[in-house]
Q: What sequence folds into this?
């Protein structure tokens, strides 16, 4: 069986800053990579979604301050696996996990479209919610549709 003729791939990537809407100068640069995979033979489609989190501590230098802000600035803080007690090992385990696989359907298609949208365009579609919170909610929601 020749798998290259059985599968069609399309990859999109977007990076954005996230600081949990804080006035602090610490922040994450999050790179989202979405691979749209279509199994031609089975007429089945899904997304592989991966996140790379790069933390910038800003002016914070003390290790305990860096860890504190790394926790509270993370988009998965409190609702997605990062807590006030999370250790560096917890971050490494979460941030080096396998890509999220989600079935492609009309709901997940829109969520991925909005997740990858640039900030100015996204802002035109979301009402009074901040771009950061909207994207955070999409990331969390997609994690519930893991396949």
A:
């Amino acid at each position: 069986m020749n798998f290259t003729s059985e599968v069609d791939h399309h990859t999109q990537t977007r990076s954005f800053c996230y600081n949990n809407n804080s006035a602090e100068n610490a922040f994450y640069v999050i790179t989202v990579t979405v691979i749209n995979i279509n199994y031609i033979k089975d007429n089945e489609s899904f997304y592989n979604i991966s996140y790379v989190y790069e933390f910038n501590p800003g002016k914070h230098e003390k290790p305990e301050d860096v860890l504190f802000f790394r926790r509270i600035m993370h988009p998965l803080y409190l609702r997605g696996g990062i807590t006030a007690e999370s250790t560096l090992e917890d971050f490494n385990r979460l941030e080096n996990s396998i890509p999220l696989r989600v079935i492609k359907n009309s709901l997940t298609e829109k969520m991925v479209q909005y997740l990858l949208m640039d900030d100015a365009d996204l802002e035109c579609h979301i009402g009074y919610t901040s771009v950061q919170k909207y994207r955070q909610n999409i990331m969390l929601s997609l994690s519930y549709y893991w396949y």
Notes: The mean pLDDT is 87. The radius of gyration is 17 Å.
